[in-house]
Design a protein that fits this description.
Radius of gyration: 25 Å
Order of helices and strands: HHHHHHHHHHHH
Strand content: under 5%
Largest sheet: none
Number of strands: 0
Number of helices: 12
Distance between the termini: 27 Å
Shape: elongated
Length: 245
Amino acid sequence: MSQFFADVINQLDVTRPVQKQVGEIMRIQLGIKNGVKEKAAGASKSPRWEHLNDIGRKAAKRDEIASLVQSNAQSRVTLRKLRAEIKSSLPKLPGREKDDLAGVLQDQEYRAYVRGLPQEQRDRAQRLHPDIAAAVARAPAELSGVPESVHAELVNDMLRRTHGAELAKIAADVAAMEMADELIRAADEEIRAAAEVAHGTDFRVWAKPLVDPLLTDAGADFDELYRRQEPEALNVLGSLAVAAE
């Protein structure tokens, strides 16, 4: 598995700022994943080790790897920020120019035409003339009476034609972040094993005080940050993913 992540890192496009930053995150987390157990074991080299009971030895191991917990949390925060930045900068559907009154009126007529069609035809709005489909895409779905899913397909089709190359690059950035997210979780699992964490509550009691300062600075919540989310929730492209294929 470590070699898999190493290969992913080597294949990243470092000319892309997001992927370059993701690569830095992944190198750090791969180092944690591979080295945390050895670092925790370093606690046994302390002169006081032999005088500690089991609870004391566990605490000593956790002290030894506290900085790795903070590094793992920082990587989570950084990915969270990258996702927000990408989401806010996604390409937008080109609309009519403000002074294109004729075009605006034409779009309104097209949408009124679509609203008057039988539902069966509105459900297949993708088959309409490209100019009509574009008018439908440029306004909320309800103005044309088409289903949201159909409207999303129309928007995606326009974005594919107007921003296809850009979306493909963003999709590669998102895929790289998904790999980083997997590695962060894998490193976290190794941290918990090295710290002899029995369950989630035990981890929260130990880790939260360590990472709260950086989470406060980032405006992040501990439980939200460590909650495993479904893949679709992590894909900031959302419905635009179709346009990036």
